[in-house]
Automatic annotation (TrEMBL):
Protein's UniProt keywords contain Transport: no
Stretches assigned to coiled coil: none
Key words of the record: Membrane, Transmembrane, Transmembrane helix
Top-level division of the source organism's lineage: Eukaryota
Domain Fatty acid hydroxylase: 131-265
Localization annotation: Membrane
Membrane-crossing residue ranges in chain numbering: 42-65, 86-106, 188-207
GO cellular component: membrane
Similarity comment text for this entry: Belongs to the sterol desaturase family.
Protein's name according to its UniProt entry: Methylsterol monooxygenase 1-1-like
Gene field: LOC105132225
Length: 304
């Protein structure tokens, strides 16, 4: 809750007039407790899990030829009932694990210094903090993910997430309850190391979930904006990890690919892409000679 009763008091405390964004924030948050503002995460996560995957779900169920050529595993098709079951299971986990976890984690958020006060952070401050959050989460998640692919971690916990060998957006948060708790640690480490404003925290949670949904979408569109982010993995990169499954020792990265490259855990994926390029080149040469057309499903070229 802001310690100002009016906009004039807030302006006097800052020694300047409030910006438009600060005025909006004051009008919305001035009389709301910090705990209430923090709990907005529950609503944001519910909307993200429910709404963001829908376009890809509709495309997958529609199976239009125009989009189907971008499907990474074109032979796999989930029925509407199977898709809804995935969403239902995710929502059950949301209401019984994710939501309660958000409710009880507020003291730790308060302790590390995430603030709701004025002034609002600058755009550059928000951007740089988000970069730190993504880097910290990605590095920590990489090692936890590798642990979960050990015999005990996979059999006891992680195999639930790998039930979908051809992932869909709804399956991004589909996991064992223990995995949800464990992977909450990397998401919290960045804000703990570089605490910022509650708005930055909201944005971080939203962007991380949108990224996870995108990488589990099952489609690799050439126009995706994330293709311009250096070292970004994306849907094709993570889809390979799901296809290989429990025996996979490749592509552990959650967002970026540098850890896989440094520690040599992207060899299977790089071999597959090399094979695909060779086969595609051979097919194109054959098309030039025969005047025909040919399509090679990515799924048939997966190898570890």
């Amino acid at each position: 809750m802001l310690p100002y009763a009016t906009l004039d008091e807030a302006a006097a405390a800052l020694g300047r007039n409030l910006t438009v964004a600060e005025t909006l924030w004051f009008n919305y948050s001035a009389k709301k407790s910090d705990y209430y503002l923090y709990c907005h995460n529950i609503l944001f996560l519910f909307l993200l899990f429910s709404v963001v995957p829908l376009p890809m779900v509709f495309i997958s169920l529609w199976r239009s030829g125009g989009f189907d050529k971008y499907k990474i595993q074109p032979k796999v098709k989930l029925s509407p009932s199977e898709t809804f079951k995935c969403y239902k299971d995710v929502m059950l986990m949301f209401f019984f694990v994710v939501g309660p976890l958000q409710l009880v984690s507020y003291p730790s958020v308060k302790m590390i210094g995430i603030r709701t006060s004025l002034p609002l952070p600058s755009g550059w401050e928000v951007f740089l903090q988000l970069v730190v959050y993504f880097m910290v989460e990605d590095f920590t998640n990489y090692w936890i993910h590798r642990f979960l692919h050990g015999k005990w971690g996979y059999e006891k916990i992680h195999k639930v997430h790998h039930e979908y060998t051809a992932p869909i957006g709804f399956a991004a948060p589909y996991a064992h309850w223990a995995e949800i708790l464990i992977l909450g640690i990397p998401s919290f480490l960045g804000p703990a190391m570089v605490p910022g404003h509650m708005i930055t925290f909201w944005l971080w949670i939203a962007l991380r979930q949108i990224e996870a949904i995108e990488t589990h979408s099952g489609y690799d569109f050439p126009w995706t904006p994330t293709k311009y982010i250096p070292f970004y993995g994306g849907a094709d990169y993570h889809d390979y990890h799901h296809y290989v499954g429990g025996q996979s020792q490749s592509n552990f990265a959650s967002v970026f690919t540098y850890c896989d490259f440094i520690y040599g855990t992207d060899k299977g994926y790089r071999f597959q892409k090399k094979l695909l390029r060779k086969l595609k080149k051979g097919v194109e040469n054959g098309v030039e000679q025969n005047g025909g057309s040919y399509y090679v499903p990515t799924q048939d070229l997966k190898s570890d």
